[in-house]
Structure formats: structure tokens, C-alpha cells
Amino acid sequence: MVKIEELLTSGENIIKKQSRVMYEYAGGPTGDLYLTNMRLIFLPKKRWALLSPGALLGKDIIISLQGIRLVSKGSFGSVKVQSDKDHRFFVKLWNTSSWVDTIQQTLSSTQRQGPPRQQPRFQQSYNPPPPPPPPTNVQHCGNCGRPLEFIHKYNRWYCRTCQKYA
Questions:
Q1: Residue 87 three-state SS
Q2: Looking at residues 16-31, what average pLDDT do you find?
Q3: Comparing C-alpha atoms, which of 66, 61, 50, 55 is closest to residue 88?
Q4: Would the pTM of this model clear 0.90, i.e. be above it?
Q5: Which helix H or strand E contains 79, and what residues bound it?
Q6: How many angstroms separate the CA atoms of 68 and 101, rounded?
Q7: Comparison of pLDDT for 18 and 2, the residue scoring more
Q8: What are the tens digits of pLDDT across the range 37-73?
């Protein structure tokens, strides 16, 4: 029988817990349901693990908060959680809304914070070279004779009157 303390990772905290939660259907396995700041964890009681070896009924159910797509209130006091699979946890009837609200609040605060960012070891900055200085001598258009304008972006002379590059 796994204890919750053995499953918690560094920085993971229990937000909500309830004992005697049924999983999936009436008469299904019962156990403890935990909501942490990272996961939703269902730990079935030892007797269920013995009654159904190798079956889903005897296994711990651990759902990453990042994998949860939808949380809603189901019938008969169930909390429906959609991730890679649909899960139903039957909590106490008067406690269903509280579970749904707490999971949704935890999901939204986790999404706002996002995954922990890794700080770069060094930061390389890139500064583009400065544009070349404008030419000092004035050029004139060979077509109309007016002064040309030097366009830095193309490094070419341009005649505004003729609207052509020289």
C-alpha cells in the first residue's frame, strides 16, 4: 500500500483530501482522493488491490493537472475528470461542488504560472551593426539632374523625382 508521502515530489503540496471516495461506479473501489498543486491522485484501499490484482481497480490513479482537459459535476455526487481517459470520483454529495471548484481554481493558477522556467547559463545578446554613415558627397540624378537620396536599407542612391534608383 503506497502512502501519499511517498508519491509527493519536491515542491508538491496537498491542497485537498477526502477519504472513502469511490472510483467509477457504485460498488467500485474506494480509497483516498488527493488534489495537489501538480496532480490529482486516487489511492485505493489495500483490500481493492488484493481483490483485483493487475486490474485498474487495484491501481493508483495519478492524473497530471497539465493533462486535465475538463472537470465537471456529475450525477450522484460524482466529479468527472477528462484527461487521456474519462474518470469519475464519487465524493460526498454535499462536497461535489467544492471539489470541482477547487480543481478548476488549481488548474487556472497552474496555467497562469506555467511550467517552471529554466534560467539560461549565459545570455548572449545580439546587436545588429549600425547603418553605414551617409556618403558625404552629393550625387545627382543622371536623368533629371536633381540631387539623389541615399537609401541605407538598400545601400543605393534614389531619385525622388524620377522614382528610380540611380
A1: strand
A2: 82
A3: 61
A4: no
A5: strand 78-82
A6: 14
A7: 18
A8: 999 999 988 654 444 433 445 678 899 998 999 999 8
Domain boundaries, the chain: 4-113, 134-166
Longest CA span, the chain: 99
| The three grid cell numbers given for residue 74, joined into one nine-digit string | 456529475
Decide if 140 contacts 160 (C-beta within 8 A). Answer: no
Answer CATH for 4-113 from 2.60.40.10, 3.40.30.10, 3.40.50.920, 2.30.29.30: 2.30.29.30
Provide the grid cell at 104: 478548476
User: What's the pLDDT tens digit per position in 80-97?
Assistant: 999 888 888 888 878 889
